[in-house]
Amino acid sequence: SLNGNILGLDIGTSGIRATVVSPTNVLLHTIQEEMPFPIRDNLISEQSPAVWQDTLKRLLNRLQQNSVLSGIKHIVADATSSSVLLMDDHLAPLTTALMYDDKRAIEQATKISKYAPTNSAAHGASSTLAKVMWLEGSLQQKLPQNGCKIAHQIDWVNSFFTQALCPTDANNALKLGFNPVENKWPDWVQKLVNSSLPEVVIPGTIIGKISQTVADTYGFPNDAQVYAGTTDSIAAFLASGAKNLGDATSSLGSTISLKLLTDKPIFSPEHGIYSHTLGELWLVGGASNTGGAVLLKYFSLPEILSLLEEVNINQPTNLDYYPLLTPGERFPIANNALQPRVSPRPSSDSKFLLALIEGLVGIEKLGYELLEELSSTKIQTIYTTGGGTKNDVWMALRETRLGYKTKKAAQTDAAFGVTQLLFRSFCR
Ligand code: ADP
């Protein structure tokens, strides 16, 4: 039971955000501390955990100065998915962290493809498993005798608070090869790595108590508990207000991603569809290559805003576009060679813009129809986030053509979303 305030932490790419939420689920406080970006070069994207530590300490110092930490009894965090490093038994980092978008583990990915079933999320050079294999290779003879500990970014954060090795959560473990349906590590995963695989628990489980040292340093109560968290994108989903079977979120950004709470998992690698466990439910997600960026390919934002004034949404163009920046699509149509369909182009720019937006809405509708069909779950409410929510015509067209109830997301802050793990049981 919640006997004090909750500290929610979102470890992002440009900073760490924190929220304080009351036991009655009222957002009391939000604060952000900036963090230098990962070092990026070609396939490389890496960051020293010392950067995370410095940033987290600065953030905690500020929260302490604001006298909010003495009321915190529960700590829960999310972090970027598939960012990972190796640590020794004493939690000292043995390597730098390969970040979510690092793609250098190409040979390792080839090896994985020989062992992993096709529907595993551990495929590809940016999977956590490929990165762990790469990191182990980089240590060579410096490998410690009793092996390394695998620490996702989230595990590093949690062990900062507990000063002990923490179990990881099933959401972050997915790209390391964990099988959430059977709730175990498949044998082939351990064959590919020397390090021992972490214990896995469901998000929202208590995984430890704050260490006395950390409690004393920052003024936390010494019985504050640390909970298993989730990935950044699931935390953002939780912020939206979606919570029941059939609730969905559409993230209308440069690209469009859809997520739906179902009672059965779907793994359809050809469509790029994976499922994350949440209580008794499953969070099923798919992402299209289309999105708001296509509109910006043809018009500047000021041009879009002025053309939107002229658009009449009650006069459909019936042009049946499939707008894409470049050929190739994964979801809802799995076809690496799919050509963008944006012709014929009407002479009127406002009609052309309307046809593009109609195309985006059509793809979103197709996406939800596919998710509904594969999961046999009826969609209840779609919560919407992203820059696309500022495009009134896009939003109005969705309202009339999607055929589902839509709502603007209550919140977008993942640091708030992750705290919702402590309020929801995600029952059928
Ligand atoms: P990203 O996914 O890169 O973070 P955003 O969510 O900021 O992108 O924006 C996604 C899309 O939303 C843009 O490509 C653009 O089409 C649209 N958009 C962003 N800002 C506005 C605005 N002020 N008015 C209308 N449309 C906007």
Write a brief caption for the model.
The chain has 428 residues and is an alpha/beta fold. Helices cover 31% and strands 22% of the residues. It has two domains: 5-235 and 417-422, Nucleotidyltransferase, domain 5, CATH 3.30.420.40; 244-410, 2-Layer Sandwich (Nucleotidyltransferase, domain 5), CATH 3.30.420.
Features:
Nucleotidyltransferase, domain 5; 6-stranded mixed sheet; alpha/beta; 428 residues; 13 helices; 19 strands; 2 domains
CATH architecture of the largest domain: 2-Layer Sandwich
Unreliable stretches (pLDDT < 50, length at least 5) are none
Assembly level: single chain
For the biggest β-sheet, the strand order reads 3-2-1-6-13-12
Question: Whole-number radius of gyration?
Answer: 22 Å
Structural class: alpha/beta
| Count of DSSP strands | 19
As a percent range, the share of helical residues equals 25-40%
Number of helices: 13
Largest sheet: 6 strands, mixed
Please, how many domains? 2
Anisotropy-based shape: globular
- Beta-strand portion reads 15-25%
Bound molecules: adenosine-5'-diphosphate
The CATH class of the largest domain = Alpha Beta
Distance between the termini: 21 Å
Classify the fold: give the CATH topology of the largest domain: Nucleotidyltransferase, domain 5
CATH superfamily of the largest domain: ATPase, nucleotide binding domain
